[in-house]
Amino acid sequence: MSKTARRVKGFRKIIQKVIHPPHLRTYIPAGKAMPGPPLGPHLGQRNINVALFCKEFNEKTKDIKEGIPIPTTITVKPDRTFDISFESPPISYFVKQAAGIEKGSMQPGPKDLSGKITFKHVYEIAKIKSQDPQFECVPLKEVCQKVIDEARTCGVETVRSLTVEEYTKFIEDRKLVLEEQATELDEKRKAKILRQAKAV
């Protein structure tokens, strides 16, 4: 093999080698870290003992309600050991919990609201999130605005006050909207299958 060929081969090896950053930030459900995808492969690429990580993570989050998404930062050390640090669940999680919904609207906007929360909810969520490192130096007012913005993204309206009767009526009306949307999606899916069948 010539010197040029050996150099080219060496360059290929360098290019093919992927260097992963020492920090991995991801969301892991409390108490439910598992070796399978998507978490397992990410840890394996960094030569982390996946089974050990899952055991340690689940132990550290055992006092948190199972399944809550936990923003997690994993720092990989040169000796392949690791440190785990957590933050409180994402703002969207708290917004949906406060609104009593499982997911946001398909097309967030005034015409398709998925829920409502009050400014009191916003304040309480902001107080929790302000304890996260990323918000340590951020004024509480700005954190409140971030909560309102995230609520809007989820299709959740922020109001000054809301009675139980008003929200119960809203939820009942919302169920009808969701049923109509589900029917519309089902019809579109069937129409697509029919078009594909005719094209064959």
TrEMBL record:
Residues 25-82 form the Large ribosomal subunit protein uL11 N-terminal domain. Its main location: mitochondrion. The keyword Nuclease does not apply. GO terms for cellular component: mitochondrial large ribosomal subunit. It is found in: Mitochondrion. One of its GO terms (molecular function) is structural constituent of ribosome. Keywords: Mitochondrion, Ribonucleoprotein, Ribosomal protein, Transit peptide. HAMAP family: Ribosomal_uL11. Component of the mitochondrial ribosome large subunit (39S) which comprises a 16S rRNA and about 50 distinct proteins. Belongs to the universal ribosomal protein uL11 family. This is Large ribosomal subunit protein uL11m. It comes from Parasteatoda tepidariorum (Common house spider).
